[in-house]
């Protein structure tokens, strides 16, 4: 029947409206902003940059590979790559973005930048009260405004962030084991060089 869906929707609204006087579960709205509904973990609006440790400049995971900039459909990411490298939060020398801007007035929250980032450096935020009367300056976020700690990421997306942390820990453990094996092999080779004749068979007279 034409309009059946509309009638069903209106009936549900009426049920909630009148039912809310006798049943609190039927109250589907809250007095925002004094009251807020908890956000579900999959909530997303605009991207932010994750940093490890306490210093956002040193800890930014972004190595300015610029993949997200290339893949962003409305081209609202702008990155300038550093000419030098500096140690990241784990001490590994890395390139870093000297400029990383996102124009959130253009961003369509598609999350493609997050999907393509090989370093888990960019994630979707849940903050939504970002309205401003400064159309250009207020909505063009720079790297300092975009940088948020891994603790924050764990708070807003605990399941996803825990999986990323576990993957990083596994990667670090593998790298440490490899470095240990290389050091042991090097030490064994050095010991052999210092002991002439080691490994030779002694002839019995
Ligand atoms: S969420 Fe989509 S539109 Fe927004 S910056 Fe990322 S890729 Fe671009
Ligand atoms: S956020 Fe990720 S994809 Fe984008 S430049 Fe940084 S490391 Fe590359």
Strand and helix map with partners:
Elements: H1 4-19, E1 47-51, H2 56-59, H3 67-71, E2 77-81, E3 86-87, E4 93-94, E5 97-103, H4 112-116, E6 122-124, E7 140-141, H5 143-146, E8 147-149, H6 150-156, H7 158-194
Parallel strand pairs: 1-8
Antiparallel strand pairs: 1-6, 2-5, 3-4, 5-7
Helix pairs in contact: 6-7
| Distinct helical segment count | 7
Overall pLDDT metric: 91
Q: Report the major sheet.
A: 3 strands, mixed
Which CATH class of one domain is shown?
A: Alpha Beta
How would you describe the overall organization of this protein?
The structure is a single chain. A hairpin with a 5-residue loop joins strand 3 and strand 4 (93-94). The protein has seven helices and eight strands. It is elongated and about 95 Å long. Among the domains are: 53-148, 2-Layer Sandwich (Alpha-Beta Plaits), CATH 3.30.70; 149-184. The strands form three sheets. Strands 6-1-8 form a three-stranded mixed β-sheet. With 205 residues, it is α+β, with helices and mostly antiparallel strands. The chain has helices spanning 4-19, 56-59, 67-71, 112-116, 143-146, 150-156, 158-194, and strands spanning 47-51, 77-81, 86-87, 93-94, 97-103, 122-124, 140-141, 147-149. Helix 6 (150-156) crosses helix 7. One iron/sulfur cluster binds next to helix 3.
